[in-house]
Design goal:
This protein is an alpha/beta fold and about 150 residues long. It has five helices and six strands; from the N terminus they run E-H-E-E-H-H-E-E-H-E-H. It has one domain: P-loop containing nucleotide triphosphate hydrolases (Rossmann fold), CATH 3.40.50. Strand 2 and strand 3 (about 40-45) form a beta hairpin. The protein starts with a strand and ends with a helix. It binds guanosine-5'-triphosphate and magnesium ion (MG).
Length: about 150
């Protein structure tokens, strides 16, 4: 593998749980305090996506990544990314909806939010709890980072 995937999204959106699911790691995720490099993934703290003060850090870190994964929590009634955010990155972005297993999940709503910020890119609905959608996402990302 040569490339890397950078994962961004709001606080508690399920980014680190998704990283663990991608690596079949059963341990629960703890709060991400700083950029975390693991194999072909760069996990980011949710604060970096919620606070525009950190956008420059995200943009700089994205230079180390082949693709940016924009995460939207299916249970959240809010989009934390500004409209057209994906266009600010030099590389491709892909969307991931997390927590589709949750009783409060609204996948359609989450997709609507992601479309505002992501454009036409592909979107993967996932659950780190049930692993729904995780094999598809893993295969897609591994293909990209191994190119
Ligand atoms: N129901 C459900 N809950 C999930 C899922 N993934 C994560 N969670 C829960 O969501 C909370 C936040 O998960 P994290 O993976 O730590 O979220 P994060 O985006 O890494 O958060 P920060 O590191 O603070 O930015 C935890 O309580 C998880 O148990 C999921 O697929 N389904
Ligand atoms: Mg985290």
């Amino acid at each position: 593998m040569t490339g890397r995937v950078m994962i961004i999204g709001a606080i508690e959106a399920g980014k680190s749980s998704l990283v663990k699911a991608l690596f079949n790691d059963e341990q629960p995720a703890r709060k991400t305090q700083a950029l975390e490099y693991r194999d072909w993934v760069i996990d980011t703290p949710g604060e970096y996506s919620e606070n525009p003060m950190f956008y420059r850090t995200l943009m700089a870190t994205s230079l180390e990544a082949t693709i940016v994964v924009m995460v939207q929590d299916a249970t959240r009634d809010r989009n934390y990314f500004p409209p057209g955010f994906a266009q600010g990155f030099p590389q491709a972005c892909v969307g991931v909806i997390t927590k589709v297993d949750h009783p409060d999940a609204d996948v359609q709503r989450a997709e609507g939010y992601l479309r505002q910020s992501l454009g036409d890119a592909r979107i993967f609905p996932t659950s780190s709890y049930t692993s729904e959608g995780v094999p598809e996402l893993r295969a897609y990302l591994q293909e990209i980072v191994s190119e």
